[in-house]
Structure to design on (372 residues):
């Protein structure tokens, strides 16, 4: 089950600052567990950020990103009240999304 | 010939020392940069969110939430509660830190037995413990509040004095005390500078950032866990969870940190 996400978006002069926190194990697939067996890879592969319905970031990330990652984006434009949606899909097909309004 | 070469060697050694000093300075700056970066991208809020849910959730045999839990500021008051802990509680007749008080609330309000409430207090990266979530949540509600731990009650004073005695008490196979590592300026372990917890300066900087998220293990660590780990490194037996001894040590550090603004839950290496 995908864990919670936390998102914050604030309008600054001419740009919008977006910060998102995701809970995810981000297993590399290279680590061995206590039983000596490899822990299967489990990591976020795609991230999509939309502001006001328009896709502004499409990111492909890998195992190099830490557990429980934090991402911050600075997007040109954007007004108070605009809807910001962020979603991710991992290599097992699990997905999660969250949204907020620009403050 | 021989004289020349030894002089050259000396000069070389002096250069080496100078170079390593410069290097140490660089390393310190790099570590500070690393600490800033980890603090900026700390996932500690996730623990606070889970803790908030857990706080409001009806649990235990009595099927009640912790919302009426008295952490010393009155039932249900969270704001600033952590900045005033440990403190003496009349109903239990003992000085309690946050974790022991949470155990009290779980037993008195929710009806858990003490054994059930402390069954799994330290979690792991895949499954943090309820205590870790709750500690992060409650501590976070004191962010920006000045540390003001009282020693007015005789029991509080006694706990402080016991904590102080424990801090300097040398024992174990290595004849270690807390003060062996945290008692004098300028000590470090590997690349980490060790704070002097007997001084206000060191205690203020450190105490106000615990509990903390440890990046290296992806877990939130509570103060009780931290003290256990210090005792482990001293080769002491593991203390009993929320024992008077660990609470006294917490009391000693918290009082030393008085006057500083609480900034936790923090982020650690």
């Amino acid at each position: 089950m995908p864990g919670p996400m936390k998102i914050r978006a604030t309008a600054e002069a001419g740009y919008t600052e977006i910060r998102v926190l995701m809970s995810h194990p981000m297993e590399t697939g290279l680590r061995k567990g206590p039983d000596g067996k490899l822990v299967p890879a489990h990591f976020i592969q795609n991230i999509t950020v939309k502001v006001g319905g328009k896709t502004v970031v499409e990111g492909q990330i890998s195992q190099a990103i830490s557990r429980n990652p934090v991402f911050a984006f600075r997007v040109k434009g954007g007004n108070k009240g605009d809807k910001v949606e962020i979603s991710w899909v991992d290599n097992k097909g699990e997905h999660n999304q969250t949204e907020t309004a620009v403050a | 010939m021989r004289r020349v070469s030894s002089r050259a060697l000396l000069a070389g050694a002096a250069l080496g020392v100078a170079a390593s000093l410069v290097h140490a300075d660089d390393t310190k700056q790099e570590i500070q940069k690393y600490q800033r970066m980890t603090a900026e991208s700390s996932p500690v809020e996730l623990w606070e969110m889970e803790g908030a849910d857990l706080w409001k959730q009806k649990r235990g045999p009595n099927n009640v939430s912790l919302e009426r839990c008295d952490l010393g500021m009155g039932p249900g008051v969270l704001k600033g509660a952590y900045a005033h802990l440990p403190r003496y509680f009349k109903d239990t007749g003992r000085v309690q830190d946050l974790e022991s008080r949470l155990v009290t609330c779980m037993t008195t309000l929710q009806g858990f037995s003490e054994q059930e409430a402390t069954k799994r207090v330290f979690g792991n990266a895949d499954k943090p413990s309820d205590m870790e979530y709750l500690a992060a949540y409650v501590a976070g509600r004191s962010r920006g509040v000045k540390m003001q731990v009282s020693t007015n009650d005789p029991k509080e004073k006694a706990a402080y004095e016991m904590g102080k005695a424990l801090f300097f008490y040398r024992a174990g196979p290595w004849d270690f005390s807390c003060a062996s590592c945290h008692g004098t300026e300028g000590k470090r372990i590997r690349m980490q500078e060790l704070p002097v917890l007997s001084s206000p300066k060191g205690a203020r900087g450190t105490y106000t950032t615990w509990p903390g998220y440890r990046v290296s293990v992806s877990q939130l660590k509570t103060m009780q866990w931290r003290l256990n780990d210090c005792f482990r490194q001293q080769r002491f037996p593991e203390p009993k969870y929320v024992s008077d001894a660990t609470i006294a040590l917490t009391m000693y550090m918290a009082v030393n940190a008085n006057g500083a603004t609480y900034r936790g839950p923090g982020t650690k290496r």
